[in-house]
Amino acid sequence: MINTGFHHIGLKYKDLARSLEFYNALGLREVTRWGDVGDEIVMLALGDGGIIELLPERGEEFSEKGKWIHFAIKVDDVDAMYKTALDAGAVSVTAPKIVPLDSKPEKMSINVAFVKGPNGEELEFFKII
């Protein structure tokens, strides 16, 4: 058996139209969808082969945090993506900032920002600088 890489992460939605509007504003595009109207599942391409799968919240407990703390999207311009997300209706969690890491074998810094999307999901915009 060979691990061939990351494919997708599933995210429950409260309002599919609102979720699609938000993620389209961030540059994600629909790959495929299936299911009945009101109970649809939609896959959105992140741009590097990864996918976000939007799944209907079918009455299960809708946790504010769920099992995931956040998911990160690698971007070229953290500040621009953060602004785009806010303009699309996201709520700011952490404004863009540069974080020096005490990493090994080399020191490096990252530029990050965090927002909450339309379903309360937390997104990180991430760039190694």
Question: Would you write up a description of this structure?
Answer:
This protein has a single domain, classed as 2,3-Dihydroxybiphenyl 1,2-Dioxygenase, domain 1 (Roll). It is 16% helix and 42% strand. It has helices spanning 16-25, 78-87, and strands at 8-13, 29-34, 41-45, 51-56, 71-74, 91-101, 108-116, 122-128. The strands form two sheets. A four-stranded mixed beta sheet has the order 1-4-3-2, covered by helices on one side. The protein has a four-stranded mixed beta sheet with strand order 5-8-7-6, with helices on one face.
SSE topology sketch:
Blueprint: E1 8-13, H1 16-25, E2 29-34, E3 41-45, E4 51-56, E5 71-74, H2 78-87, E6 91-101, E7 108-116, E8 122-128
Parallel strand pairs: 1-4, 5-8
Antiparallel strand pairs: 2-3, 3-4, 6-7, 7-8
User: Structural class of the secondary elements?
Assistant: alpha/beta
What global shape is seen?
globular
Model regions low in confidence, pLDDT < 50 over at least 5 residues: none
Radius of gyration: 16 Å
Q: Tell me the number of helical segments per DSSP (H or I, 4 or more residues long).
A: 2
CATH topology title: 2,3-Dihydroxybiphenyl 1,2-Dioxygenase, domain 1
Task: Produce a short descriptive summary.
Helices cover 16% and strands 42% of the residues. It has two helices and eight strands; from the N terminus they run E-H-E-E-E-E-H-E-E-E.
